[in-house]
Amino acid sequence: MTHFLHPVAPKPTKDIHAGACRADRRRLLGGLASGTMSLAGALLLPRSLLARPRPAEERALVMVVASIHRRLATTKSYTFDDLYGAVARFRPDAVGVEIRQEDLDRGQPYLTSNYPPEMIALAAQYGPRTFGFDWLGDELAGAAIPTDWWSKESPIKQLERSFDDRALPNDAHHRRLEAALDRLSSEQDRLLASATVRNLVDGRYDRVTGHYYATLRALVAGTRFDALARYYERRDAMIARNVLSEATRRRGQRVAIVTGGDHHGPVVRLLAANAGTVRLMPIA
Fold it and tell me: Does 29 or 127 have the greater pLDDT score?
């Protein structure tokens, strides 16, 4: 996502009908106050004077907060309290966290071993109002994450560790892509270093991160690391889909979503594409 400048609103044209309505209202209030008009007489006045109830918002009101996970403990411009405060100010009816739904009730030691601390804290604070939307792979669906999943069993973590060695073709095309990937990673780090709860969702980080993963896909195409890029892409899609599904079920409610910064762009884009059922709200 990129920056969008707000266009200057055109000056309103004179609304003759609205002016007449205001005059009628003044006459009505004056007549009732002076006793020269009865309530029955007031009921015969034009419909423009009758109170029209505002329709209730039928869409879910969704605020998406991007977290920087453990960096919240060390980044002065964006702290745990900043994140928790943004959620609290929104006065949510429901809070979505980056934890799998099936893991929410598995206990503190289990959660601490598998999920970021701010997600665990939010789940504890909002209790039954919390839902989980994370996805870690079909092979884990409905089951507990094994104790040694991250260190030994996860094929994705194994690929990530191998990728650090960059065992890729050593030709000019791949060298250019690797250099571009390093530049984009540095740009992400630069933005995270000065991140705040508000500026992390202003579009800049989403844009750089989108370019990063597009470059990664091009870099690993046709290699064994292609599975890594496909997993990242599917996880983004599944997280976004789970968030939309939960928000759609909560029409008329205020829903706060807290997700890692890298997933923010895909989540917001899918929600924006479904504006008939969800309304995106800014961070106050």
Answer: 127
How far is residue 73 from each of residues 64, 65, 80, 128, 226, measured CA to CA in Å?
Answer: 20, 17, 7, 26, 33
The CA distances from residue 107 to 69, 88, 114, 144, in Å, are: 20, 24, 11, 11
In this structure, which amino acid lies at residue 121?
A
Give the pLDDT confidence score for residue 167 in this predicted structure.
74
CA distance 4 to 64: 18
Domain chopping of the chain, boundaries: 16-49, 60-281
Please name the helix (run of DSSP H) or strand (run of DSSP E) that holds residue 203, with its range, or none: none
Residue 85, token pair as written in the block: 């405060």
* Burial of 260 per CB tally in 10 Å (0-12, 13-18, 19+): middle
Classified as helix, coil or strand, 221 is coil
Tokens representing 181 are: 């990937």
- Structure tokens, 65: 């907060």
Q: Is the pTM of this model over 0.85?
A: no
